[in-house]
């Protein structure tokens, strides 16, 4: 007769196996993110440089792909059929390029693509209708992707390859202890269709796996899974931004006692809000959440992977963060120069941003 | 059977989002909007499943359906596999189509949203693009972003972007033939019809309020009454 503890262990193994993803190794059709291109442009460049240059992978991009329409869709400005037909056009571009693995740089897009495919699976007549609409609008036809990944899934898959090439890691060079990170995976990565994400909604592991593989320690805190506060129309309309900052503030208040060294993010929108609202709260309340009057540095996963591999912080675009990242760079032992931070190409002088009233910046 | 309920049933999100609600309130407990606004997704789903035309019409004309942030946390937690967030999307879709959105302050915000995304998608091929993202309307993005927008071309060049450029890359110009395809998709799938409906109902409301469309845009983009909030 099987022991109860063995049964519990086997049960947990089965649950965990439901949340694993067999991510293909190579040959990806890549689509960009509206938000990431605007606010973290260095991150998309770093992703391609890492995948193509450091890891030798085939990642194909066509200039003809467009927005997936996800933000407009979740701001309720376009009908579902319009959003789905834009998605279908992206799939047609993938098909024409000869690929069947599809990787996107945005969590809203990831949710949009998965929702589309799941809806078509449940309602084949809807897929037939969208195929008809796409052909009528563009003359294009498409195959559905065999696999859809978020770009972080690839960095997660290759996290040990990156660790093997690491020039720096997540160990505090002053204390020898692991740096402590909080992670934020973004609602539409796992909350809508948990089986499509690494670790699902209950045990999301895509960012934890990176932090652990690169020497750091993941810090749990009560509001870890709370939304970053984007809320689509709750940010894009100026009158609604109280919703956004209130929800983000709730997370900061919850993580503050655990004194994280950094925040790592998955979705391109979340780092914008987690970074900018720290500044806004400091201006409104004089409150800062890092040590010594600084904020808590917020990174995209591409920025962190780039730092680990030894990329120049200012070529990654870390100067575009309002919260200074230098305290984290110092802990990782990464050299940086203030003179180079706000320069253009070939050292062109672009002057300096003004300083916030309360939050310290280097 | 309610006519408005029948209309909702034509929306796939409604079909997928509402099985049978047991009114447990789990969605409200997990909802970020319910903590901030006078908002209770449990009550909305309960109202809808009563299939009463007058109640659904009142909902479509209310601020209530516009409080949700569509994070879909409710979808994860519902013990009966409902998705109140998807029900909200179907309600908003119907409110937009019928012109009921102009009856509420939060509903009227659909006009500036529509104008923002219409321009960004059909002119640039992006939902957000530097040419239309003004620092003045987003001052919370801080002095660093002000600096970035003042040195946009140089700052983006340093990061390897291809802003307004040909070919692939970050913030490239989307080729005109691809923008033409997007426009065609909007025309054929109801996207253009939706834009025109929102603009038509908004113009009527602006006239009723004695505002020109620029004044109406600013008012709906910036106006925030205190009646919406908890506490």
Question: How do the strands and helices of this protein lay out in sequence?
Answer:
The complex is a heterodimer of chains A (362) and B (231).
Chain A: H1 4-18, E1 28-31, H2 34-39, H3 41-54, E2 59-60, H4 70-74, H5 80-97, E3 101-104, H6 107-122, H7 124-138, E4 147-150, H8 151-157, H9 159-164, E5 180-184, H10 187-190, H11 206-213, E6 217-218, H12 233-236, H13 241-255, E7 262-265, H14 269-285, E8 298-300, H15 301-308, H16 326-332, H17 338-341
Parallel strand pairs in A: 1-2, 1-3, 3-4, 5-6, 5-7, 7-8
Chain B: H1 3-9, H2 12-17, H3 26-30, H4 32-36, H5 41-49, H6 53-60, H7 73-77, H8 84-98, H9 105-108, H10 110-124, H11 142-150, H12 152-158, H13 176-189, H14 191-209, H15 213-222
Helix pairs in contact in B: 5-8, 10-13, 10-14, 10-15, 11-12
Strand content of chain A: 5-15%
CATH architecture of the largest domain in chain A: 3-Layer(aba) Sandwich
Strand order of the largest sheet of chain A: 2-1-3-4
Give the termini separation of chain A.
64 Å
Task: Provide a concise account of the structure shown.
The complex is a heterodimer of chains A (362) and B (231). By secondary structure, chain A is α/β, with parallel strands linked by helices.
């Amino acid at each position: 007769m099987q022991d109860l503890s063995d049964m519990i262990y086997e049960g947990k193994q089965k649950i965990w196996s439901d949340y694993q993803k067999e991510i293909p190794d190579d040959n990806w059709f890549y689509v960009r993110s509206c938000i990431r291109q605007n606010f973290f442009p260095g991150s998309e460049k770093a992703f391609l440089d890492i995948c193509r240059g450091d890891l030798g992978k085939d990642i194909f991009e066509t200039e003809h792909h467009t927005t997936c329409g996800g933000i407009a869709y979740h701001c309720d400005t376009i009908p579902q059929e319009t959003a789905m037909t834009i998605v279908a056009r992206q799939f047609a571009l993938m098909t024409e390029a000869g690929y069947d693995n599809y990787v996107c740089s945005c969590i809203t897009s990831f949710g949009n693509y998965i929702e589309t495919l799941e809806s078509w699976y449940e309602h084949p007549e809807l897929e037939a209708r969208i195929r008809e609409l796409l052909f009528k609008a563009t003359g294009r036809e498409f195959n559905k992707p065999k696999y859809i990944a978020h770009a972080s899934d690839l960095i997660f898959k290759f996290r040990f390859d990156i660790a093997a090439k690491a020039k720096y890691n997540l160990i505090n060079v002053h204390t020898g202890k692991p740096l402590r990170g909080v992670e934020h995976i973004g609602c539409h990565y796992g909350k809508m269709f948990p089986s499509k994400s690494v670790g699902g909604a209950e045990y999301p592991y895509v960012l934890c796996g990176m932090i652990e593989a690169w020497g750091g320690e993941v810090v749990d805190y009560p509001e870890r899974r709370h939304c970053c506060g984007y809320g689509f129309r709750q940010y894009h309309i100026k009158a609604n931004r109280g919703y956004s900052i209130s929800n983000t503030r709730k997370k900061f208040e919850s993580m503050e006692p655990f004194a994280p060294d950094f925040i790592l993010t998955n979705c391109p929108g979340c780092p914008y809000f987690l970074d900018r609202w720290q500044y806004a709260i400091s201006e409104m309340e004089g409150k800062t959440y890092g040590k010594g009057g600084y904020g808590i540095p917020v990174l995209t996963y591409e920025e962190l992977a780039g730092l680990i591999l030894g990329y120049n912080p200012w070529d990654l675009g870390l100067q575009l963060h309002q919260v200074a990242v230098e305290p984290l760079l110092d802990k990782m032992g990464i050299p940086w120069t203030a003179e180079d931070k706000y320069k253009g190409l070939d050292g062109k002088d672009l002057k300096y941003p003004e300083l916030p009233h309360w939050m310290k910046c280097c | 059977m309610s006519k408005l309920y029948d209309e909702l049933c034509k929306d796939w999100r409604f079909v997928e989002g509402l099985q049978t609600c047991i009114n447990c309130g789990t969605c409200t407990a997990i909802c970020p909007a319910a903590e901030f606004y006078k908002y209770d997704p449990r009550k909305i789903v309960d109202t809808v499943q009563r299939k009463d035309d007058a109640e659904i019409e009142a909902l479509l004309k209310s601020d209530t359906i516009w409080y949700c942030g569509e994070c879909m946390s409710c979808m994860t937690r519902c013990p009966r596999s409902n998705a109140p967030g998807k029900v909200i999307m179907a309600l908003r879709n119907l409110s937009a189509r019928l012109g009921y959105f102009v009856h509420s302050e939060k509903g009227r915000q659909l006009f500036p949203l529509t104008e923002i995304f219409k321009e960004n998608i059909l002119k640039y091929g992006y939902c957000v693009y530097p040419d239309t993202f003004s620092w003045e309307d987003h001052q919370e993005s801080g002095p660093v972003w002000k600096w970035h927008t003042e040195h946009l071309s140089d700052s983006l060049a340093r990061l390897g972007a291809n802003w307004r450029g040909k070919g692939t890359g970050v913030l490239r110009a989307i080729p005109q033939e691809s923008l033409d395809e997007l426009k065609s998709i909007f025309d054929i799938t109801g996207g253009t019809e939706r834009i025109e409906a929102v603009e038509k109902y908004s113009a009527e409301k602006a006239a009723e309020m004695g505002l020109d469309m620029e004044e109406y845009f600013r008012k709906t983009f910036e106006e925030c009454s205190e009646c919406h909030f908890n506490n």
